[in-house]
Amino acid sequence: VLEMSEEYLFVGYSKGLIEKYKISQFSEFSEFLEIQTSFSLHKSEITSIQFDDKENQLISASKDGIIYLWD
């Protein structure tokens, strides 16, 4: 599962891990990703992730039935 904001890319994996990447401008025509952090409280596959720019929060849900709000 992927979610993007203006500065970050969030990736959710089948084992419950979420990784946050910073999107940086490498040149006028390309960008690169630099891993910032990982979140691993979910116990099963990530089914949804959403970043709220206004609140600066990540919301994630998984097959374990739990929803987390990440600051």
Describe the structure.
With 71 residues, this protein is an all-beta fold. It contains no helices and seven strands. The chain has a four-stranded antiparallel β-sheet with strand order 1-2-3-4, with no helix packed on it. A three-stranded antiparallel β-sheet has the order 5-6-7, with no helix packed on it. A hairpin with a 4-residue loop joins strand 5 and strand 6. It is elongated. The model has no long low-confidence stretch (mean pLDDT 88).
Provide the descriptors you would attach to this structure in a database record:
71 residues, mainly beta, 4-stranded antiparallel beta sheet, 0% helix, 59% strand, elongated
Give the topology.
Layout: E1 2-4, E2 8-12, E3 18-25, E4 31-39, E5 46-52, E6 57-62, E7 67-70
Antiparallel strand pairs: 1-2, 2-3, 3-4, 5-6, 6-7
Question: Quick summary of this structure?
Answer:
The chain has about 70 residues and is mainly β.
- Sum up the overall morphology in one term: elongated
Overall number of strands: 7
Distance N to C terminus: 19 Å
Please summarize the sheet with the most strands.
Answer: 4 strands, antiparallel
Helix content: under 10%
Mean pLDDT across the residues is 88
- Indicate the structural class: mainly beta
Supply the number of helical segments: 0
